[in-house]
Specification:
Blueprint lengths: L1 H22 L12 E4 L10 E4 L9 E4 L8 E4 L4 E3 L15 E2 L5 E2 L7 E7 L3 E11 L6 E12 L2 E7 L12 E5 L2 E2 L9 E3 L6 E5 L5 E6 L3 E8 L3 H7 L12 E8 L38 E2 L23
Antiparallel strand pairs: 1-4, 2-3, 4-5, 6-7, 8-9, 8-19, 9-10, 10-11, 11-12, 12-13, 14-15, 15-16, 16-17, 17-18
Length: 323
């Protein structure tokens, strides 16, 4: 009887341990609900925007949603409750605050790159993403201030481009985003929720998250990208000493969030490598914001070139099933 009791207790402990382990497993990323709206910098780069929510059923009083201090540039507002969330609450590839990238391992880091050059940020057998960097040189520093101005995305035999148009003065009521698919301009009505779907690749859609300057690009089973064109405001320039005031360039660039659904364990690139199971973070953990080096490994000859030193693109054609 004693042996049976011990065996029963041991089995119970094992079951409890398994249940506890299951309870602490990483939760799947939240999906954007259908009733979301985006707040992004508005006219002249204002950051004090609010969104008025009304309950169409008349059950709740109207309310105002405002971005949290974690993400003053952009946030998601759910109506009619006016609950606000930061992009990083939904997208692992974008951070609350200023970090340039959030890796697949959950760690934030900068990659400075170099202005007027292209770098591969994700390179896998069936997917390749390059980023074009723009920048501003501070004479007191040995490097450029840099931002991502455009993305060049390749999958199967297709090419998708999205970029921020250069503008001397910022007006958020004007659309500064341009997009092309296989060299043909993507035209979408200027209203939140307007949607474009590729005839050649039915699984590829582009949806406006705001009337101007914000889109969600989705390739079914492959990636989900949130991109928003934002400027460097005079306040940003003053705080960080960017030297934008009076320069005739608002340095419009992309704030980007990524989700990837089917990367292989051989993926590479500035961001891609952080999704590998064998990835080892060698950046300084003592730094306030670690910086990823090795820029020469990621240089591409143009926005669509898959010729960076760590390129994996084109090793097989598994992604062709979505075309």
């Amino acid at each position: 009887m004693a042996r049976q009791l011990v065996a029963a207790v041991a089995a119970l402990v094992a079951v409890c341990a398994l249940a506890a382990a299951a309870g602490v497993q990483a939760q799947p990323p939240r999906k954007l609900p259908p009733n979301y709206h985006m707040i992004s910098p508005g006219k002249f780069g204002q950051r004090s925007q609010q969104l008025s929510c009304k309950d169409t059923n008349g059950r709740k009083a109207g309310c105002m949603g405002k971005c949290d201090k974690r993400c003053p540039n952009q946030c998601i507002v759910l109506c009619p409750s006016c609950k606000t969330y930061c992009m990083c609450d939904f997208y692992a590839g974008v951070s609350c605050g200023d970090p340039r990238f959030t890796g697949g391992d959950g760690n934030n880091f900068y990659f400075h790159g170099k202005k007027d050059q292209d770098f591969c940020i994700v390179s896998d057998a069936d997917l390749h993403i390059n980023a074009h960097f723009i920048g501003k040189r501070n004479p007191s520093m040995s490097r450029d201030f840099t931002w991502i101005q455009a993305l060049g995305i390749r999958f199967a035999h297709h090419r998708l481009f999205m970029g921020a148009l250069k503008t001397t003065s910022w007006n958020g009521d004007v659309d500064h985003l341009e997009m092309f698919f296989d060299d043909v301009a993507i035209e979408i009505p200027a209203e939140a929720g307007a949607r474009w779907q590729s005839a050649a690749v039915p699984g590829l859609t582009v949806t406006r998250t705001a009337a101007t300057n914000g889109v969600r690009v989705h390739l079914r089973g492959v990636f989900d990208i949130m991109a928003n064109v934002v400027p460097i405001t005079e306040e940003d320039s003053r705080i960080h000493n960017y030297g934008v005031a009076g320069s005739g360039d608002s340095l419009a660039h992309l704030d980007i969030g990524f989700k990837f659904h089917d990367l292989t364990d051989d993926v590479h690139g500035v961001l891609g490598q952080t999704y590998r199971s064998d990835y080892v973070n060698e950046m300084s953990v003592r730094a306030n914001m670690p910086v990823m080096g090795g820029a020469p490994n990621y240089v591409s000859s143009d926005i669509f070139a898959a010729d960076c030193a760590v390129s994996r693109f084109g090793r097989n054609t598994g992604i062709s099933m979505v075309t």
